[in-house]
Amino acid sequence: MIYEDNNRLYLRNASELLEVQAWGENSLRVRSSKYAEYTGRNNALTEKVATGNAVVTVDEGHHTGQITNGKLTAKIDAFKNLNFYNQKGDLLLKGYQRNRIDDMSAGENDEKVNHFNSALNIDSREFKAIPGGDFELKVRFDAAADEKLFGMGQYQQDFLNLKNAKLELAHRNSQASVPFVLSSKGYGMLWNNPAIGEVSFAKNLTEWHALSTKEMDYWITCGDTPSAIEEQYAAVTGKVPMMPDYAMGYWQCKLRYRTQDELLAAAHEFKDRNLPISVIVIDYFHWPKSGEYTFDKTYWPDPEKMIKELHEMGIKLMVSVWPTVDQTSSHYQEMKEQGYLVQTERGVPITMDFLGNNGFVDFTNPDAQTYLWQLLKKNYADKGVDLFWLDEAEPEYTVYDFDNYRYHNGTNLQIGNTYPVAYSKAIYDGQTEEGNKQVINLVRCAWAGSQKYGALVWSGDIDSSFQSLRNQLAIGLNMAIAGIPWWTTDIGGFHGGVDDNESFRELVTRWFEFATFCPVMRMHGDREPHTEPLSDIGGGKMPSGGATEPWAYGDKVYGIMRKYLNLRENLKDYIRVQMQAAHEKGTPVIRPLFYDFSADKAAWDVENQYMFGSDILVAPVLFEGAKQRDVYLPAGTTWVNVYTNESYAGGQQITVATPLAQLPVFVRQAAQASLAPAFTAITQ
């Protein structure tokens, strides 16, 4: 039975109740459950938006119905299948239903003609009961052979178009599942379900799969351009704060500054060399033991004095914190008794084995959020620490047995993908309550909605190789489409770089150039050779990697890096405009060419270039030893090579030289006059 109630469209099909309602501009939210009522959780749909502007019609026999909200219409046919159309009547998404209907009398004439009668007995929505009450859920849609799909977050692969890909809906170190997908057909879909699972964008069907859940929940929108779709998505899930001015500059980090003196020496060296630097970072195990959330006084004797000295140089301080709590730390027993730690379903309650037996803070518990922030406030923020590095945010279980962990809000299988959102929210809420209105914190994982809590996501512990660099380009662009405008990488990769190796020096130079045109430009890495640990206790236990400062790779590389550091500084006014658009509309800072040039069919196929804001086209050098590369210039504007000042009509591919000091960059001719002074840093 199909019916309308409270401006919503419903399908009652035995124990299943399907609901479709308006949810924001040109958008619909779809829920289905076999429970008596919905959970009431909005998951990523946290923003207040219009939900009552739909037009709902149901036929007299209650066999069919439709709901229209702006440009988007959902229709339920007489065979209980759900399909979506835009304002032109174009089919955007069709439920994958393969079952036999012997009695076709209920359907309208066009439905009888168009229904594909099949003996396979496969429904578009499949709830499979799990003993104990919940369901394994599969939701299926017909696949379109010519469709291109983008977004979905961070997966370590070097292709942008996700058509024919299978993706795990789960977080791991260097993997962040952000389940929003944008289609070349003109729609976007958020899988608004934080359950562990997978999605297959296969040739024969698209299938979303949750291993354990109480209900189906997804949100769909349509628009005439990718930007319209992206802005409608940001409106329902949230937008980033305005990025602080300092964060648009260069961030210096390494694994790891071991002492207060080492950190200050590096900061002073930047100033002595007159190199721009905005943020310097203290990495992990500056603490005496995981879960103490404080500086080890042996190696960091006077943090307030150190931070004051940094601030006098105009440098902000970021400090790494982990959600791990050592079993022998002073807070462990209290946190365990209060239920502030992630629980295990079987075995001992240890979720990470790293320099001790550790539990993870359960950030889905609001009281645990408050408890942890109070420690960070007392031992870091009140001493002057400016921003936090929220590491291990997946969380990174020693064993990824997702079925073995339970949170305050439910089992890991049911709601585990919300963990990094809750982690970011805990620190964001604490900082905003202290009056900080421009929060930005580095975090190693995200889910839909993380952006509104000041999450600057980075791509985790990645390999130092050109293959990894190619991966990061695809990742950064798909994270942007997935609604995460603030994103960064470890320049040079994290694992395996050797400072005096010529191949690595080439790689780190190319990566540095690429990072100049990323939302945040941040150096990091576990370089070789390592130093020995300072001691066998506390913050001295961990070794340190080799140097990562720009002068660590020889004079030639240093000269190039110096130029790009100055370029980044010169571009701050331009970057500020792009960050304002991200803050106000959800506009990605970096994005694929099709985002700005959707009418150019060729732009949809370009996966190795991108736009940095509205006017700068970047073509990174992604292969070792490359002397030249092809660059596609999108149609609809004239482009200027920043090195030669040559102008080119859009809609063509050209070949450009790529000497080590030159990253191919083109600007729109209309913006050349305003941007040219910034580029003198690398062109003169």
UniProtKB/TrEMBL annotation:
Protein name (Swiss-Prot/TrEMBL): TIM-barrel domain-containing protein
| InterPro entries per the UniProt record, alphabetical | Gal_mutarotase_sf_dom, GH, Glyco_hydro_31_C, Glyco_hydro_31_N_dom, Glyco_hydro_31_TIM, Glyco_hydro_b, Glycosyl_Hydrolase_31
Q: Where is the signal peptide?
A: none
One short Pfam family name for this protein? Gal_mutarotas_2
Carries keyword S-adenosyl-L-methionine?
A: no
Give the family this protein belongs to, as stated in its UniProt record: Belongs to the glycosyl hydrolase 31 family.
Domain Glycoside hydrolase family 31 TIM barrel as annotated: residue spans: 241-575
Domain Glycoside hydrolase family 31 N-terminal, by residue range, is: 18-196
Per UniProt, the keywords (alphabetical) are:
Glycosidase, Hydrolase
Q: Which residues form the Glycosyl hydrolase family 31 C-terminal domain?
A: 586-669
